[in-house]
Amino acid sequence: MAKANWTKIKTEYITGNISQRNLAEKHGVSSSTLCKIAQAEKWTAAREKHRQKIVEKAIQKTADEQAERIKDQLLTAAAMVGVMDKALEDPQQFNRYVVSEGLGEGVSETVEKIFSKTDFRALKDAAAALQIVVKVQKDILAMDRIVDQKERERLEIERSKTNVIDDDDSETGVVMLAPVLDDADDDDEEDGDDE
């Protein structure tokens, strides 16, 4: 029988989802030996730490991507506000009309003229555009909160799935029995085995 590669077995346990019992079978080693080594080297704690690190990296990566998207959207909204601000700097903005003037013989010219009457259609369009910009900004910020909450829920579900796998190891008693056996007297162990 070939000597077991315990570094490889440990790495597979810490980075994977396989139970200790199945890992022992896969590598052809004694389940009790694997359990003792795993307990002594705290494989289960290392697995949990590894999973937590992965979850934190996933959260950070998602947050970075969301932040970049939101930044781009906010820059677009800010550019829209800038265009509107520039247009509104002109005190006669809503008094300008584009009109066609006939020059005679079927020829006309389109020109911009300023009248004392306010162009309420242009004013209404500007107000509607401003409402759209404000709504876009609110939606961007609200979307961020919703996406962030959904991502947290998804990661919590993933975390609970990995805990179920760890619980499977605990149900076998492999991890939990070792501390009990270390504290028991030799006579008690033998009596317990006979029952």
Description of the molecule:
It is a single chain. The chain has 195 residues and is mainly α. It has one domain (6-181). The protein is 74% helix and 9% strand. It contains seven helices and two strands, in the order H-H-H-H-E-E-H-H-H. It has helices spanning 6-15, 20-27, 31-40, 43-88, 120-171, 174-183, 186-194, and strands spanning 96-104, 107-114. It has a two-stranded antiparallel ribbon. Helix 1 (6-15) packs across helix 4 (43-88) and helix 4 (43-88) packs antiparallel against helix 5. It is rod-shaped, with a radius of gyration of 35 Å. Residues 164-195 have low confidence and may be disordered.
Question: Which descriptors apply to this entry?
Answer:
7 helices; 195 residues; 9% strand
* Main beta-sheet annotation: 2 strands, antiparallel
Globular, elongated, flat, extended or rod-shaped: what is the shape? rod-shaped
Strand order in space, largest sheet: 1-2
Counting DSSP H or I runs of 4 or more residues, the number of helices is 7
| Span between termini | 33 Å
How would you state the average pLDDT, rounded? 78
Number of domains: 1
For the CA atoms, what is the radius of gyration? 35 Å
Q: Would you list the SSEs in sequence order as H and E?
A: HHHHEEHHH
Strand-residue fraction? 5-15%
Class from secondary-structure proportions: mainly alpha
Low-confidence stretches: 164-195
Share of residues in helices: over 70%
Query: What's the total count of β strands?
Result: 2
Layout of SSEs?
Blueprint: H1 6-15, H2 20-27, H3 31-40, H4 43-88, E1 96-104, E2 107-114, H5 120-171, H6 174-183, H7 186-194
Antiparallel strand pairs: 1-2
Helix pairs in contact: 1-4, 2-3, 4-5
